[in-house]
């Protein structure tokens, strides 16, 4: 039971960080770099935003339903973000929904 509570607490703390980091947030981008990355940021947002329904289904089904858009977003996030490589599919799906 305490392991479940610890996991829930860790997820609650880390989900906002995942959402900002994984979903193409521009909070850390400088104005000089924003014009160079604006095209890719838009594409990043599309991949993640299109996966929201699949992420909701994944979470609601306790991981049994894995849609193609969610799979694409998980793959994309892990290819482009070091933190995402260490995160579980559930944590990433929750971060996608929190976006």
**Count of strand segments:** 0
The H/E string reads HHHHHH
Global geometry: globular
Q: Mean pLDDT score, rounded?
A: 73
What Rg is obtained from the alpha carbons, in whole angstroms?
A: 14 Å
How many domains in all? 1
Strand content: under 5%
InterPro entries: CHP02448
Keywords: Signal
Protein name: DUF2388 domain-containing protein
Describe it for me?
The protein has helices at residues 2-22, 31-50, 52-60, 68-80, 82-86, 89-98. It starts with a helix and ends with a helix. Helix 1 crosses helix 6, helix 2 (31-50) packs antiparallel against helix 4 (68-80) and helix 3 (52-60) crosses helix 6. It contains 6 helices and no strands. Helices cover 79% and strands 0% of the residues. The protein has one domain (2-23, 43-98).
Write the layout of secondary structure elements.
Layout: H1 2-22, H2 31-50, H3 52-60, H4 68-80, H5 82-86, H6 89-98
Helix pairs in contact: 1-6, 2-4, 3-6
